[in-house]
Write a structure and sequence with these properties.
Elements (H helix, E strand, L loop, with lengths): L6 E10 L2 E9 L4 E5 L6 H9 L6 E6 L2 E2 L10 E4 L11 H9 L7 H13 L15 H15 L3 E5 L7 H18 L2 E5 L3 H7 L2 E6 L2 E7 L10 H7 L1 H5 L6
Helix pairs in contact: 2-3, 2-4, 3-4
The structure holds adenosine-5'-triphosphate.
The site of adenosine-5'-triphosphate (ATP) has 12 residues, from helix 1.
């Protein structure tokens, strides 16, 4: 018997503003998929549909064998890190992460030590009592990652999570994400604009253009492809630097 896909979008349709999106794809458990494409193509929309912050007008979304199309985000077994505004401004960092473990904050000593351990792992040990506004944008993003990591949900949805961290720290956080993914066996969808990040982290690429999946392909060699006009336009001069034909 074949295993149910961890993520299944079946003819999922969604429209907002000028965007008319339609997505169909499947992902195996434990896979890491990088989602790339031009600004406004619908990448965040796809993540929000998976998370349950948006509801499709047609189609079905399955997560780990369960139809979640009409379920609230909290009932889906997903963790999402947004591009920004991930934290509750009026609560300290430790509490923000603790809420990821239990929204009612009924945490025992072991749970709080998991919170502190997660802070250590994102390089923010000792930041627990600080308020979000006293942290830099990159530090706040690392708190959001720590919260997603402690939740250990089977599906991890990341919307440009390493943006603004600088190359060294972004690479460290990417490694940490992959480590935790392996520990939990989570399936990851990760929006990124960085082909190197996608190549380093992902097994597969979903390339989105104008609300459609223009390519669903293995990550290996993807950015050297010359048969996808949307990809060439997206990479721009970068494609030429990567050894593609120059005029
Ligand atoms: N609430 C809204 N009202 C109107 N249009 C919206 C709304 N939310 C999103 N859109 C439009 O849907 C399109 C897709 O947005 P989305 O955020 O999914 O793009 P994206 O591919 O993630 O872009 P980026 O790389 O810039 O983050 C955009 O054109 C956006 O303007």
């Amino acid at each position: 018997m074949t295993q149910e896909p961890a993520i299944a979008f079946e003819d999922v349709a969604f429209g907002i503003g000028d965007l008319s999106a339609a997505f169909s794809f499947e992902r195996a458990a434990g896979s890491v998929t990088a989602i790339l494409g031009p600004s406004g193509a619908g990448k965040s929309t796809l993540l929000n549909l998976a998370a349950g912050f948006l509801t499709p007008s047609a189609g079905r979304i399955g997560l780990n064998g369960k139809d979640v199309t009409r379920l609230a985000p909290s009932e889906r077994g997903v963790s999402m890190v947004f591009q920004d505004n991930n934290l509750f401004a009026h609560l300290d960092i430790r509490t923000n992460i603790g809420l990821g473990l239990d929204p009612a904050l009924r945490l025992d000593r072991t749970a709080w030590s998991q919170v502190d351990h997660a802070l250590d792992r994102v390089g923010l040990g000792g930041f627990g009592k600080r308020m979000p506004a006293t942290l830099s944008g990159g530090e706040q993003q690392r708190v959001a990652l720590a919260r997603a990591f402690v939740r250990r949900r089977p599906v991890l949805l990341l919307d440009e999570p390493f943006d603004g961290l600088g190359p060294g720290l972004a690479a460290d956080m990417l490694d940490l994400m992959l480590e935790i993914r392996a520990e939990v066996g989570a399936t990851v969808l990760m929006v990124t604009h960085d082909p190197d990040e996608a190549s380093a982290a992902a097994d597969q690429i979903l390339f989105i253009a104008r609300g459609r999946i223009a390519a669903d392909a293995p990550a290996a060699g993807f950015f050297d492809r010359a048969d996808l006009p949307d990809l060439l336009a997206y990479l721009g001069n970068g494609a030429k630097r990567r050894g593609g034909a120059t005029i």
